[in-house]
Amino acid sequence: MIEIKIFRDEQSILGFSACGHSDFSARGSDIVCSAISALSQTAILALNQVAGVVPEWKKKDGLLECRVPADVEQERFVTCQVIFKTILTGIENIAGQYPDFVKVCNEEV
Fold it and tell me: By C-alpha distance, which of 64, 81, 60, 85 is closest to 72?
């Protein structure tokens, strides 16, 4: 199962972690894992290329974690929120369609 943790404070999304493998089908043909990977990686690219923010991130087999630096100026932070909410919309939709393979939870930071 892929577990998506959304890192939040009281008002904002500060980042996310995608951990695990869905095991929906064999690696290389797993549409659930591919969809989550594509959305997660798009978030990192969009934070950099659209918001102009260099996110803190790490990637290992079965893990992609991303956080927005604490010192992001307000205008860019607002754009980060739009990106996070957009990506989260897609991830929650996938989790709704494949609840045995993707779980989304919030983590207060």
Answer: 81
Full domain range(s) for residue 66: 2-108
Q: What tens digit of pLDDT does each residue of 6-30 get?
A: 999 999 999 999 999 999 999 889 9
pTM of full prediction above 0.90: yes
Q: How many helices (H) and strands (E) does the chain have?
A: 2, 5
Q: Are strands 63-67 and 56-60 parallel, antiparallel or unpaired?
A: antiparallel
User: Residue with structure tokens 């577990």?
Assistant: 3
What domain count does the chain have? 1
CATH number at 7 reads 3.30.70.1490
Cα 16 from Cα 47, distance rounded (Å): 13
